[in-house]
Write a structure and sequence with these properties.
The chain is α/β, with parallel strands linked by helices. The chain is built from 14 helices and 17 strands. Strands 2, 3, 4, 5, 10, 14, 15, 16 and 17 form a nine-stranded mixed sheet that branches. Strands 1, 6, 7, 8 and 9 form a five-stranded antiparallel sheet that branches. Strands 12-11-13 form a three-stranded antiparallel sheet. The chain is globular and about 65 Å long. 44% of the residues are buried. Bound molecules: S-adenosyl-L-homocysteine. S-adenosyl-L-homocysteine is lined by residues 50, 56, 64, 66-67, 98-101, 105, 128-131, 134, 155, 168-170, 173.
């Protein structure tokens, strides 16, 4: 895996409102675990990154696949329509997106899937979004979609029943506990204050009481393990699946095999920066450990498809054919469409850095786009 290491230039650090609040909190209560730092930076109700700004798009800090090409969301919509038919075309089902950003992917998905008779009428479209700012953007994006959309703040609010869940770049924002191997055993990576009162990384006794993955046995001094709390997602998935056929698609950046390394990364205005530079004003993510995510879903009793890269998955769903039809229909935009598709499929870029994880009720047929075991 590509551990990310950015040097921390104290001159570049920014006294954001959240940096000041965190420094006061640490001075009062002591160092905070990296997971709490991540949760505060992204979700703090007053200063959290997703609560306060339009993060996504060329005007924001980073660009995601649905913002690169409409073909991404369209293929996901057609995929969902095939899955719905595999479920026996239930007359009512929840079509859910968790962490929908600007709402672009769902808008493209609904438009494309409308061609499949009965799908749009059966879909109860639900967007799970904790951020009020992004909820408003999603409302505007989907206002022309013709679908009745409802919003929920938390994935645990979803009801059991026939459901398809979609999520792009959601798992990477869920906070991770970082454990660091030291002589006497495992300690937890924390954010503390350095002697001049600046935010700094350190380590402290860990309160982690869960099991460690098997590969942890191979750790040598200095190795870091990242443990993501996926229970909110996997438990919700299992509970929803208890009420009918269930399928989930999680696309994200990460690696197929577990390994050691610190992958915490901050991005602001399309540039990587050290994660302590702009608390609350930069996106903060870690690479998804897909082996761990697959195992976490499997442990709840759901079936997990073999992992594939984004390029393999989009290729299997016919991205080339769909793109060429779009280019034929819009000759003046053909060059731009081609470049966007190349970016989604790039062998040294998004095509292989992103993976697709498919999960489903064990009784259902294998999901489209994934190889059979
Ligand atoms: N899927 C979108 C946005 C990715 S950014 C795209 O591809 O463009 C991450 C999204 O997840 C944002 O909408 C953010 O507000 C949301 N989010 C963050 N934490 C979340 C949580 N715990 N549950 C649901 N959504 C969350």
């Amino acid at each position: 895996m590509n551990a990310v290491s950015m040097s921390y230039d104290p001159e570049a650090r920014r006294e954001t409102p959240l940096a000041l609040a965190l420094k006061a909190r640490i001075a009062r209560d002591g160092p905070i675990p990296v997971a709490d730092f991540m949760a505060a930076c992204l979700g703090d109700e007053t200063h959290g990154y997703y609560r306060t700004r339009q993060a996504i798009g060329t005007q924001g800090d980073f660009v995601t696949a649905p913002e690169i090409s409409q073909v991404f969301g369209e293929l996901i919509g057609l995929w969902a329509a095939v899955v719905w038919r595999q479920m026996g075309a239930p007359s009512r089902f929840q079509l859910v997106e968790v962490g929908p950003g600007r709402g672009t992917m769902m808008a493209d998905a609904i438009r494309a899937a409308r061609r499949v008779p009965g799908f749009a009428e059966a879909a109860d479209v639900v967007l799970v979004e904790p951020s009020p700012v992004l909820t408003e953007t999603q409302r505007a994006t989907l206002s022309q979609s013709g679908a009745a959309v409802r919003w929920l703040p938390d994935i645990s609010d979803l009801s059991p029943g026939p459901t398809i869940i979609l999520a792009n770049e959601l798992l990477d924002v869920l906070p991770v506990v970082q454990l660091v191997r030291q002589e006497g055993g495992w300690r937890e990576r924390v954010v503390r204050l350095d002697p001049s009162g600046r935010l700094d990384f350190g380590s402290a006794e860990t309160s982690w009481s869960g099991a460690l993955p098997a590969f942890a046995d191979r750790a040598t001094a200095g190795d870091i393990i990242e443990l993501r709390d996926l229970a909110s997602v996997t438990e919700a998935a299992a509970r929803i699946a208890s009420g009918g056929p269930f399928a989930g698609l999680f696309i994200d950046y990460g690696h197929e095999a577990s390994g050691f390394g610190d992958t915490l990364q901050a991005v602001r205005q399309h540039r990587a920066e050290h994660p302590l530079t702009s608390p609350g004003e930069a996106d903060l993510t870690t690479q998804v450990d897909f082996a761990a995510a697959s195992a976490a879903f499997h442990a709840t009793g759901l079936a997990v498809e073999p992992l594939v890269t984004q390029a393999e998955w989009l290729g299997a769903l016919g991205i080339a054919e769909r793109a060429s039809r779009l280019m034929a229909a819009n000759p003046s935009r053909a060059g731009e469409i081609e470049l966007a598709i190349a970016r989604l499929m790039a062998p040294q870029g998004m095509g292989t850095r992103f993976e697709a994880l498919g999960v489903r009720s064990p009784g259902m047929a294998a999901l489209p786009g994934f190889p059979s075991r």
